[in-house]
Amino acid sequence: MTQREPRFYISSKSLCPFSGLDSPFPVTVGSLCNWMAYLGNRGRTKSATMKSYLNGLRSYCVDMGMGGDDLEVFRHPRVQRVIRGIKIFHGAKEGDLRERLPITRNLLLRILAKLDTNPQ
Fold it and tell me: Alpha-carbon distance 21 to 49, whole Å?
């Protein structure tokens, strides 16, 4: 491992045997989500830390000469959902998540009125 490689690169390499890959690069959406879920599930990596890891990993990919589609995986909606899931798993602080009000009877009746209940 060279000095320019991120410390957490070792963690990403640890998933290679499980995915059947020799190298974690180029990063794919699937391998990135698996790696993040693995780290998040261990209970020690919070969402803010995960975002920092992703920024470091993305920067490392740029330094390695990757670009375009290789970097789009970091903005993929599934990657963002995994980060949000890690945040919820660790118990998001009050105010971090958008408040959702319960569905009232009146609102439910309005929703039901819009549904097509006729069998095809």
Answer: 25
* Single-letter amino acid code for the residue at 112: L
Question: How many independent structural domains does the chain possess?
Answer: 1
In a domain, 115, yes or no: no
Mean pLDDT per block of 10 residues along the chain (120 residues) reads 50 54 73 81 76 85 81 89 83 64 88 80
Q: How crowded is residue 93: how many other Cβ atoms within 10 Å of its Cβ?
A: 8
Within a domain: residue 110? no
Three-class DSSP category at 19: helix
Q: Between helices 77-89 and 29-41, what is the axis angle to 10°? A: 0
Q: Are 27 and 68 in contact (CB under 8 A)?
A: no
Terminal alpha carbon distance of the chain: 61
Distance of CA 54 to the CA centre of its chain: 9
C-alpha 74/C-alpha 28 separation (Å) is: 9
